[in-house]
Amino acid sequence: MVKNRLIPVLLLKDGYLVRSENFSIHQILGNPVHEVERFNHWNVDELIYLDISEDDVYYGQRNDTRVKSAMDILTVLEEVSKTCFMPLTVGGRIRSIQDIRERLKRGADKVAINTAAFEMPELIQEAALIYGSQCIVISIDVRRNAEGKYEVYYDHGRKATGETPVECIQRMEKLGAGEILLHMIDRDGTAEGYDLELIKLVSESTSLPVIALGGVGSFKDYAKGVIEGRASAVAAANIFHFMELTDRRGKKAMKQAGVNVR
């Protein structure tokens, strides 16, 4: 039986590790490379790095001066892969086969694609043919629209696609995607728990593994994402930064609820 996975998500913005809330508030937490050393000692199954920077040239704030940062995503990936002993997925700023190639060459096992999947869907098909579907993760950002219905957004959650999550994911599956990272924008950084209705709706509509992300506030949320939401894997960002022994306590809670974890 395939075991359910527990996955930390690290968000990078302008070369810094950040905390996110509703895709609009970002709090700097520190150096993105040092974190992987901590996760290597923890019992996590995979690691996801998402670069949410807006510009091609990264900038950081030092002494009230805007200076260029040396820590672009490729530099971070090169450093992280030296000591990362778990499967590594990297996403953000992927627009071409060359971008995918560069990330895989630097140690990524999979790539997560968001904006390009909507602006140039042919990239998904081409990438799956070259590298295999198992390498291609589609990052799907969802929120309730003005009518209160689930809708998929891209470009940092700013552009509406007009598609429901089910329509979008079934289309991506046909293009050759191998996995879905499902992120509920309205729950991002709120600690209110996963949107279980959304996760179940998506999980039951596709044969692809679904990674649930967005809203974890307690270790009990993980088991709910699997048992009630039917997700293949559960992921979180903020809780891994602000609570001790997050992996062990999280997996303990999942096992106690009957979830099949490593």
Per CATH, what is the topology? Answer: TIM Barrel
Instruction: State the helicity in percent bands.
Output: 25-40%
Spatially, the strands of the biggest sheet line up as 1-4-7-8-9-12-13-14
- Sheet with the most strands? 8 strands, parallel, barrel
Structural class: alpha/beta
Write down the Rg: 17 Å
Note down, in words, how this protein is organized.
The protein has 262 residues and is an alpha/beta fold. The chain has one domain (5-256): TIM Barrel. Helices cover 32% and strands 27% of the residues. It has helices spanning 34-40, 73-83, 97-105, 115-119, 122-131, 165-175, 196-203, 220-227, 238-242, 246-256; strands at 5-13, 16-21, 25-30, 47-51, 59-62, 65-68, 88-91, 110-113, 136-144, 150-154, 159-160, 179-184, 210-213, 233-236. The strands form 2 sheets. Strands 1-4-7-8-9-12-13-14 form an 8-stranded parallel barrel, surrounded by 7 helices. It has a two-stranded antiparallel sheet with strand order 5-6. The N and C termini lie close together (11 Å). Residues 62-68 have low confidence and may be disordered.
